[in-house]
Specification:
The complex is a heterodimer of chains A (262) and B (129). Chain A contains three helices and nine strands, in the order H-H-E-H-E-E-E-E-E-E-E-E. Chain A has 262 residues and is of the alpha+beta class. Chain A has two domains: 34 residues; 193 residues, no CATH class. Chain A has a nine-stranded mixed barrel. In chain A, strand 3 and strand 4 form a beta hairpin. Chain A starts with a helix and ends in a 31-residue tail after the last strand. Chain B starts with a strand and ends in a 10-residue tail after the last strand. Chain B has a five-stranded mixed barrel. Chain B has one domain: OB fold (Dihydrolipoamide Acetyltransferase, E2P) (Beta Barrel), CATH 2.40.50. By secondary structure, chain B is mostly beta strands. Classes of the chains: A alpha+beta (262), B mainly beta (129).
């Protein structure tokens, strides 16, 4: 419910009164400096309130206007362009390369941001948690160096550090598992992938996330995608255990199986 | 006939918006719709996909079992489905996208219950009025 969220937000506001006050003062100074006259704030007061359950407004394909033949979209290196073309050719021939989530492996960061299932953001002073419904995954975002630092692992969700740039939450993720792919069209990335996600409220209940993939092995320059989400009052995160009854496992030839009567 | 093809072809347009999360749907023929009349043997309200095991009697009077895959319970729950939406013995008319390989399986589009009530899936699919 919106009133409850505002109430919760008010509590956080009280606990962060000094910070908010300083921010307002700074904002007022900027307004005076730039225009020479006071003006009403153009952004809502609680612009750092990302808490709630969010649902994507776009599909599960990473970039729907992707044109494999054009080098700028995505800006593949020759090696990864060839890999993508091979994957598309294999799919067209009825022998698609194995898509890890079909075998119940997590989609990983950043693909999970293109899931059709909602996610919940929980904000704590030193850590932000994103609880994804899809495969019950969690992304922990350590703020301002509060975490242990890179663990040197290669995991599906990697290691995320966040900081604030004005009211944008900027999340940088490393240590990602290179077996993840971006979608069912099989856009691959490498072990050099670094992901930046810039979370920005563009409406009371509208979230924009600008996702930059910096991967010098896969892309000749960083590849930027933007996705939007809406905050869903009254929604809840449901359990999702993929291994419960997966009747569509990956066959050795890379195609997706269909297990009949059972 | 308990099986007919293309009877609801006009509704194919709704299928194009189907959200595909967990796996490629290349195994299903999205251009074809098959109507099945039969009886529920088993309803599997499970992740990552719901299944209806469905017995369809052929012209020889033999029951043939079809495996009908649906979206995830999470998605379908938000469309009003629950773990008791179907039960063994329910008499239904199902409309599905069939498997390309011709075996007895398909993807759930919508159904009509014996009392005439209808049920759709996700992605804007609605049963005919």
């Amino acid at each position: 419910m919106l009133p409850e969220r505002n109430s919760d937000a008010a509590g956080r506001l009280l606990s962060k009164g000094l910070w908010i006050g300083a921010a307002l003062l700074a904002g007022a100074c900027v307004a005076y400096a730039s225009n020479g006259a006071p003006k009403a704030p153009s952004a809502p007061l609680l612009t750092r309130d990302f808490e709630g359950i969010w649902s994507g407004t776009q599909g599960v394909i990473w970039e729907t206007n992707l044109k494999p033949g054009e080098p700028e979209n995505p800006p593949f290196t020759p090696e990864f362009a060839a890999r993508y073309q091979a994957a598309r050719a294999a799919a067209a021939a009825g022998k698609p390369k194995a898509d890890p989530p079909a075998g119940c492996l997590p989609p990983g960061i950043p693909r999970i941001m293109a899931s059709p299932f909602p996610f919940e953001i929980i904000q704590k002073p030193k850590t932000i948690y994103i609880m994804f419904e899809y495969m019950s995954q969690v992304q922990r975002i350590f703020l301002d160096g509060s975490g242990p630092g890179s663990l040197g692992l290669a995991t599906f969700n990697g290691y995320s550090q966040g900081h604030w740039e004005k009211n944008d939450l900027v999340v940088n993720t490393v240590d990602l598992n290179p077996i993840s792919v971006l979608d069912t069209t099989h856009v691959e990335t490498s072990d050099a992938l670094k992901v930046e996600e810039r979370f920005r409220l563009i409406g009371a209940d509208k979230l924009q996330v600008t996702i930059t993939l910096d991967d010098p092995k896969a892309f000749v320059h960083p590849w930027v995608t933007q996705r939007t989400y809406v905050r869903k009052s009254g929604e809840q995160i449901l359990p999702y255990v993929c291994e419960e009854n997966n009747r569509n496992p990956i066959k050795p030839d890379g195609t997706t199986d269909f297990i009949g009567a059972k | 006939m308990s099986i007919s093809r293309g009877a609801f072809f006009i509704f194919g347009v709704f299928c194009a918006t189907l959200s595909v999360a967990h796996h490629s749907f290349a195994m299903f023929d999205r251009t074809q719709q098959v109507t099945l009349k039969g009886t529920v043997r088993d309803y599997q309200w499970t992740n990552p996909h719901v299944f209806v095991q469905f017995l369809v009697r052929n012209d020889k009077g033999e029951d043939q079992e079809w495996s009908i895959e649906g979206a995830s319970p999470n998605m379908l729950y938000r469309e009003g489905w629950t773990k008791t939406t179907f039960k063994a013995g329910d008499q239904l008319t199902l409309v599905v996208n069939p498997l390309k390989d011709g075996s007895h399986g398909g993807y759930f589009l919508f159904c009509r219950f014996a009392d005439g009530k209808t049920l759709g899936s996700v992605g804007g699919q609605k049963a005919p009025g």
